[in-house]
Write a structure and sequence with these properties.
Elements: E1 2-7, H1 11-23, E2 29-32, H2 40-48, E3 53-54, H3 59-62, H4 70-79, H5 82-91, E4 96-98, E5 103-106, H6 112-124, E6 128-130, E7 135-141, E8 144-149, E9 154-162, H7 172-178, E10 183-189, E11 191-195, E12 207-214, E13 221-227, E14 231-233, H8 235-243, H9 245-250, E15 254-260, H10 266-279, H11 295-304, H12 318-330, E16 331-340, E17 346-351, E18 356-357, E19 362-363, E20 369-371, H13 385-402
Parallel strand pairs: 1-2, 1-9, 2-6, 9-20
Antiparallel strand pairs: 3-5, 4-5, 7-8, 8-9, 10-17, 11-14, 11-16, 12-13, 12-15, 13-14, 15-16, 18-19
Helix pairs in contact: 1-6, 1-13, 4-13, 10-12, 11-12
The structure holds flavin-adenine dinucleotide.
Flavin-adenine dinucleotide (FAD) binds next to helix 1, helix 2 and helix 13.
Length: 407
């Protein structure tokens, strides 16, 4: 009889098991992992460097980075937040450093450091780690859980944590359903946009350090925007893909994206264009007067405004200036399809948040059942927020589940 059995040996699962074992010394804890390896996503995360968390200490600021789950995480972050995770790692000799954009990585710059730390702790605390042991079925009766494993064996536990990750591949979705939970439909989040458009054709690698993008004016995103071989990427696009995840899925990833390449109010750019028109009357408009726009992109936008290279600023008609202004500040691009962002991808959807008590991460439907990580309908934008949600959920679930466990 395990005191605590964890289903899924990923970020939330292993950290949850170690946390439980720390809080209830001498308890019997196991992790059952379906695949042949533990912590596979930690290994590949952050390009192999593992963006562990984000340097944001104010829970009400932190929750702004979660398109789904921000309300539920607010109280949880008051109890276990990035600072607590950093301290937990530091106590185990893993130091982190902060990049200027707030992302935090191990000083080794190697995700293996995090894996080694977790696995060492698990061994020290006698947590049993099993691979190739997927949990296929769970039945709950008389206050305990019977787990049927993929090798045909069974295990019994007083309390369980489902931490099977997100997406349709997550085995936890079916298990949660079988225990009475409803599932919010799954949708991808954090993806790039496929765009085939002469304005950006052949400009892969060119970026705008500060752009505004939106599909609906209700959800405007601002930040660096990158042209890729297949279309558009960069933080502004990834954030938009997360905040609009459900809407874009419902449009089957066919939609019109509006880009303001300058991130400035159109009236400011209009003034700039009028000034240049007066001061550079005889010059060709092919040199960009707008900071932040690369000359190659500028040339394309000028051509799209139907202005030829032979024209001079003084020859430009008012309608051409307006067309250029439109290209610069409200260019419309047809998106047809999405692509995986290589740095990080997550899914939204999962266990319905109304059915979980976020003080403890315990199911409101089935006592003794806990959830943590991406199996819940919680997801963050890129920057270490997804792992932080996993650490926080796992820690609070372990803390609640370990109460009254006899040492
Ligand atoms: C390429 C990539 C890079 C990323 N980089 C970052 C980053 O730098 N920072 C960040 O914050 N986030 C990052 N993320 C997101 C982050 O990895 C996830 O949000 C996080 O791993 C979720 O943790 P989890 O424990 O819920 O799920 P996972 O880490 O996915 O673990 C779930 C585990 O459960 C197992 N499992 C599934 N079903 C069963 C079953 N029935 N029985 C037993 N085991 C089962 C799976 O095999 C898996 O090992 C990245 C994601 C990807 C894909």
């Amino acid at each position: 009889m395990y005191d605590f059995a964890v289903i899924g040996g990923g970020a939330a699962g292993v950290f949850g098991a170690v946390s439980f074992a720390e809080m209830a010394p001498g308890s019997k804890v196991a992790v059952f992992e379906r695949s042949g390896k533990l912590l596979t996503k930690v290994k590949i995360s952050g390009g192999g460097r593992c963006n562990v968390t984000h340097a944001c200490w104010d829970p009400s600021e932190l929750v702004k980075h979660y398109p789904r789950g921000s309300r539920e995480l607010l109280g949880a972050f008051h109890r276990f937040q990035p600072r607590d995770m950093i301290a937990w790692l530091a106590e185990r000799n893993v130091a982190l450093f902060t990049q200027p954009d707030g992302r935090m990585f191990p000083v080794s710059d190697d995700s293996q450091t995090i894996i080694d730390c977790f696995v060492d702790q698990a061994r020290k605390l006698n947590v049993e780690l099993y691979t190739y042991r997927g949990v296929e079925q769970i039945t709950h009766s008389d206050g305990s859980f019977l787990l049927t494993l993929s090798d045909g064996s069974t295990a019994i536990a007083k309390k369980i944590l489902i931490a099977t990750g997100g997406g349709s591949a997550s085995g936890g979705i079916q298990l949660a359903k079988s225990l009475g939970h409803t599932i919010t439909p799954i949708a991808p989040s954090l993806f790039t946009f496929n765009v085939s458009d002469p304005r950006i054709e052949g400009l892969a690698g060119i970026s705008s350090q500060d752009a505004i993008v939106y599909v609906s004016k209700k959800r405007i995103q601002r930040g660096p925007l990158l042209i890729t071989h297949r279309g558009l990427s960069g933080p502004a696009v990834l954030r938009l893909s997360a905040w609009e995840a459900r809407e874009l899925q419902s449009m089957n990833y066919q939609f019109t994206l509006v880009i303001n390449w300058t991130a400035c109010d159109p009236s400011v750019i209009e003034d700039t264009l009028e000034k240049v028109r007066n001061t550079s009357a005889r010059k060709s408009p092919m040199n960009t007067p707008v900071a932040n726009i690369s000359s190659r992109l500028w040339e394309r936008l000028v051509a799209s405004a139907d202005i030829s290279a032979e024209t001079t600023w003084s020859q430009m008609k008012r309608s051409q200036i307006q067309a250029l202004l439109g290209q610069l500040t409200a260019g419309e691009f047809q998106v047809s399809g999405k692509n995986t962002n290589k740095d990080e991808f997550v899914t939204c959807g999962g266990v319905n948040l109304r059915e979980v008590d976020f003080k403890t991460f315990e199911s409101r439907i089935c006592k003794g059942l806990y959830f943590a990580g991406e199996v819940l309908d919680i997801d963050g934008i890129t920057g270490g927020f997804n792992f932080q949600a996993a650490w926080t959920g796992a820690r609070l679930a372990a803390s609640a589940a370990s109460q009254n466990t006899v040492s």
